[in-house]
Amino acid sequence: MKYIPFHKPSIPASAIEGLKQVIDSGWITTGKKVQRLESSIAKIIGAKYTVAVSSGTAALHLAYLAAGIGRGDEVIVPSYTFCSTINAILHTGARPVFCDIQEDTLCLDPKDVEKRITRKTKAIVVVHFAGLPANLDEINNLARQHNLVIVEDAAHAFLTKYKGKYVGSGKNLTCFSFYATKNLTTAEGGLVVCPNLETANYVRMMSLHGISKNAWKRYQKTGSWKYDVLFPGLKYNLSDIHAAIGLAQVPLAGKAHVTRVRLAKLYKQLLSHNPNLILPAEPVHPTSEHAWHLFVVRVQPSSRIGRDGLIEKLKSAGIGTSVHFIPNHQQTLYKKLALNRQLPVTEKIFRQILSLPFYENLSEKEVRRVCLTLNQLTYGK
Ligand SMILES: Cc1ncc(COP(=O)(O)O)c(C=O)c1O
Fold first, then answer.
1. Active-site residue among 182, 226, 235, 268?
2. Cβ(153) to ligand 1 under 6 A?
3. Could you cite one Gene Ontology molecular function of this protein (predicted)?
């Protein structure tokens, strides 16, 4: 039986032409393609200041630095996220303070966030889990009341809409990931949306060693050999090779989103009668939109088989799955740093979650096979 992987990227053949152009141009690192990717994404989501970087993790690290997060600060962040959201906080010298999530949205719980605000709190990190928008209004209000910065981890949220507007079109520093499994991918890559030009200039400079602006041009005809180091920067710039892969997907992004919405609907339709699964929530507000980066179900204790056993059985049936995420407060590093707290909702959800195969070129037939197998294993029907 043909294996259905958890993920397969959808890169159009036009990417080859873009890659050829880069190689033929004689300039393969940061250049025109990166600029075009930045402006194309800005245009789609309605943002003004975008800086493409080498990963979503790099985007988060730079956004934290741009937000002025550093030693002595506390940053409130869900434990229920990928470890890089947290690691990048540690790299600034600040202390992550884990908060719990809401059981329905799996995004951070504003009430729990409020409880964890202290005099040392500098920022709140919002993760739009799986592509569902988090409750930004409540978090923005809290930030305003307590004079805190918000950084949005939008690694899952390219084309997520919150109340009619794309995530990344507001005033918060917002970080996208273009990692291999994401809705738009450059293989490795990311992007920071900045609230103003000054912040964008800082992020750009810090992404390239902290040297004076346009340093990437120094080997080109229009560039200059002279540069000045202003800050201890990082090496987080994106290359034109990566940008060319992303640019090929840009004109198809709308269509790809429609396909994801259709596949999510089909999954829901085929699994809705199964009492042993909880299906992913839809956005509360009618003008909000799910980006459907992941399709995550929750295996209930009433299921004939537990989540871990189910993963093995699905694997034997030729179906790849994944788990997003292992709570960070249960990871060795964060336990050692005494950051382990009791997060009852996060812990409960972790025991249940299962990410099913989900990508644009997943066929309806494959979705039917996944659902049939899943229903048989958990429900017997
Ligand atoms: C929620 C979240 N934040 C951040 C990242 C980091 O992105 P990247 O892998 O591009 O560094 C990921 C990863 O894939 C993620 O899922």
1. 182
2. yes
3. transaminase activity
Pick from 177, 186, 238, 325 the residue to mutate for probing ligand 1's pocket: most ligand atoms within 8 Å of its CB: 177
How far from 229 is each of 30, 63, 202, 206, 225, CA to CA, in Å? 19, 20, 13, 10, 13
The pair of structure tokens assigned to 251 is: 């004109």
pTM more than 0.90: yes
Cα-to-centroid distance, 140 and ligand 1 (Å): 22
Between the CA of 54 and the centroid of ligand 1 the distance, in Å, is: 12
CA gap 364, 372 in Å, rounded? 12
Ordered domains of the chain (ranges, CATH): 14-252 (3.40.640.10), 253-379 (3.90.1150.10)
Q: What is the pLDDT of residues 102-122, one digit of tens each?
A: 999 999 999 999 999 999 999
Query: How far, in Å, is the centroid of ligand 1 from the Cα of 305?
Result: 30
- Mark whether 365 is an active-site residue: no
Which residue CA neighbors atom 8 of ligand 1 most closely? 56
Residue 56 Cβ < 6 Å to ligand 1? yes
Mutate to test the pocket of ligand 1, among 126, 179, 355 (most ligand atoms within 8 A of CB): 179
Atom 10, ligand 1: residue with shortest CA distance: 56
